[in-house]
Amino acid sequence: MTWRDRQLTCWFICLLLICSVHVAPAQAVVSGSSNPPTFNEKELFAYRAKGRGSAAGQVFLRASSGKAVTQAGASIYLIPMASSTRYWFDKHVRENSCPSKSGASSPESPVPHGSPVECLREVMAQLLTDKKLIPYLRTTRANPTGHFWFTKVPTGRYYVVSLLEGSGGAHQDERAVGIAWLTIDLDVDEKATNLVVTDCKSVLC
Questions:
Q1: Which candidate, 4, 150, 166, 3, places its Cα nearest to that of 79?
Q2: Rounded to an integer, what distance in angstroms lies between the CA atom of residue 188 and that of residue 35?
Q3: Report for 32-36, 175-179, 187-191: range of highest mean pLDDT
């Protein structure tokens, strides 16, 4: 082996060592990505003040018959998008971690066993009992036709989320339960209207 060949071999070995040093930390970050992110209040400062925007629409569930099922007085939450709320939403709402019928939830889901309503209440409680987040949440209630309004909303990105528990009536449509949701971006002074907030069992989502 010539001197030049030995030099090239040394450079190649050094390059491999450098690459291995940089790859290891990256793998560690990926493996820990399933852990909930820590609450970062800096992401939410802009959402605490009163804004000049508004959001209005209708919240309902899509019954198996295709009927839109509303619930008078249902709480509707305007939730700012941040690392912690995005993790909660993607893990429990978008993927619907609760069973459709009474029984065990999926092995990956941390929510307890029980009825769908109990499971969905627990999903909501995981977010709504966080005292650090409460000052940044906005809440309103649906009228008898499921319509709602938010006013004085600051610019930003939001989840609109509502748990509908059904009226307990004899008809199957009246017993529909689920979490209805929508994501919105509000610009400065924007008046968002005719928002459709549903459980995404239709082409509306």
A1: 150
A2: 34
A3: 187-191
